[in-house]
TrEMBL record:
Stretch forming the signal peptide: 1-23
Pfam families linked: TPR_11 (PF13414)
TPR repeat intervals: 436-469, 503-536
UniProt keywords, alphabetically: Signal, TPR repeat
Keyword Chloroplast among UniProt keywords: no
Name by which UniProt lists this protein: TPR repeat protein
Entry annotated with the keyword Signal: yes
Organism, scientific name: Pontibacter virosus
Amino acid sequence: MKHNKKNAALFLPLAVAMLSANTGCTLQRMVKQAEKQEIEVSPNPLVANGEEVVFEMKATLPEKMLKKNQDYRYKIDVVYEAAGQQREHLGALNFDIGNYLYENNRPTITQEFSFPYAPHKNKGRLLIQGTAIDKRKRDKVAYTPEEQVATGLNTTALLMVRSNDYTYVPDNYKTIAEGPASIEFYFDENTFTTKSYLGENLPVLDQYAMDTVKLQKIKVIGSQAPNEKGTDLAQKRAKALADYYRSKVSLLDYSGKKIEISTETEPTGWATLLDRVNKSALPKAQKQEVAAILQGAGSDKQKVDALQQSAAFDYIRHYVYPTMRFARVEVDYNRARKSDYELYLLARRIADDSISAQVLTAEELQYAATLTPLLAERRKLYEAAVKTTDKWPAYYNLGVVYTEMARKEYRPKAKEALLDKAIHNLNFAGFRNPTAEVNYALASAYHLRGEREKALQIYDYAIKLGGEQELLHRIFTDKAALEMEMGLYDEAIRSLTYSGDDYQTNMNLGLSYLLKENYEGARQYYEKALELKEEDPLAHYSLAVLGARMQNEGMVRIHLRRAIQRDRSYMERAFDDPEFAAYHGKQSFREGLVR
C-alpha cells in the first residue's frame, strides 16, 4: 500500500489520542491494583518518645503490579494530620527499581519515618496516598483514595519526671566576706603538669596574680588517687602550681605586693578513698562492699585486686579516682564592703549604662544582682560582671538568667535563642570552673535545648568531676530521664541505680520497667513514689496506665479517679490516650472519670 502523507497527517492526532487514552487506562489499572496493597505500621498507635515520633512502615504491592507496567512508576506518600487538619508530609515509599525487594514474589519496601513531637499532635491520623505516574509524560498521574493507617499518638513514654533544676551561685558576700577564694585544678592520671586548655583555671589564677593588694597569702594543697604511681605526686602537683603562681606574679604584678606561698598535701590512702565512696552516688550495698574490702585484713595488693572485682569498681574508676587527682589553690583576701542600699543604687546605674561597671568589684556586682527581682536588670549586671571580671560566677549566673528567661518564653525561636545564650555563658563558666555543679547546669541547658547527645556527654563529665551526694543524685536522675527520652532504657535503669531513692528516681524506674513490660516491677516503683509524694496525680495516672496494660480494671478505675480528683486535666488526657482505648465502653473507665 502506498504511503500517503496527507493520510498520515490525518491519523496523527488520532494516534496521540489513543496513546493518551491507553496511558490513562494503564494508570487507572495500577490504581485499581493498588487497592490490594498491604500496609503495616509499627508501632501502631504511633509512639512519642522524647522529642521525636519514630515508626516503621512496610508496604507490599500485588505481585504483577509493577512487572507489567515498566513505563510507569508508583509511590506512596506518607502524611501525618494533627488536630485542626495541620498536615505534615513525612516522605514517600518510592517503588523504583533498586528501592524494593521481593517477599513471596511481591514488591516490598520497609522504611523508617520520623517527625518532631509536639503536644498538639497527640490527636492525629497517619495517612497514605498512592500515586501512579507515567515515566514518559510526568504530568499524567492517577491517585489512590487517601487511606488512614494509624490513629493518634501513645505518649506513655513521655511520663518521665525531669528536674534540670539549677540556680544562681550561692552568694557569700555577706556571710563569709573574709573567707578564702578556692580554685580547683585537675590532673591527668600520673601527671603533675599544669594544663591551659579547655576546662582549666589558669586564666583565673592569672587574675589573682595581677591583683593590687599589700599582702597575698596563698596555700596550695595537692592530692592524688590511690591507683596512681609513686607517693610524691600530690607534692609535685602542689609545687607545680606554686611555681606557676610565682612566675606569673613576677610577670604581671606591678604593685610590689608581698606574697606568702605554702604547700601541703592531703592524705592519700584507703581511708580517703572510703570517705569519697561514702559521699558518692553508689548504692548502699555497693558502699558496704567497698568498706568491707578496704577495712578488712589483707595486703594493699589484695585490696586492690578485690576492689577491681567489686560491683562498684567501674564507678570508682570513672567517677571517684578523677576527683582525687587535684590541687587546690586558696587565696586569702580582706576587702571593705558597701551597704545593700548603696550597692543597689550603683547597680541600677550600671544597668542603665549611666556609670561604668568598674565602680563595683566582681563580688559586689554578683551580690548587687541578687538585690533586684527583674531578670532584665540581672542580665545587665551579670553582663557587666563578665566584662569587668571575666570570672566564672558571672558567666554562670548570666547563663542562669538566660535559662530563666527561656523558661518564661512561649515563642519557640525566641526560646531557642535564649537557651543558646545560656549555653554560651555556661560553657565559659565551665572552662573557668570545671565542677560538677557548673557542668550539670550546662548539660541541663543542652537538655532543655533538645541537643540530647551533647547533654548526655556533659552529664557524664559532670559526674566524673565528683561532688556532694545530693548533687550527684540530681545529675544521675536527669541523665536517666534523658536516656529514657532516647529510648536507652537499660542505660537509664543503670543510672537510676546511683540516683538515690527519691520520688523522681522511683517514678522513672516505674516508667522504665513499664516500657520494658516488666509490669510487677513497675508497680512496685510507682507505689514507692506515692509513699514519698502522697496523692501525686502523675503517679496515679501512671498506675492507671499500668492497670490498663495488665488488664486490671480495678487499678484503672481507682487510680484514674484519684489522678483526676487531684488534676482535672487528666480527664481529657485519659479520653485521648490510646492506652485506654479498649476501656472506653467499660464501666470501670466511666467510674474512673467521676471526680
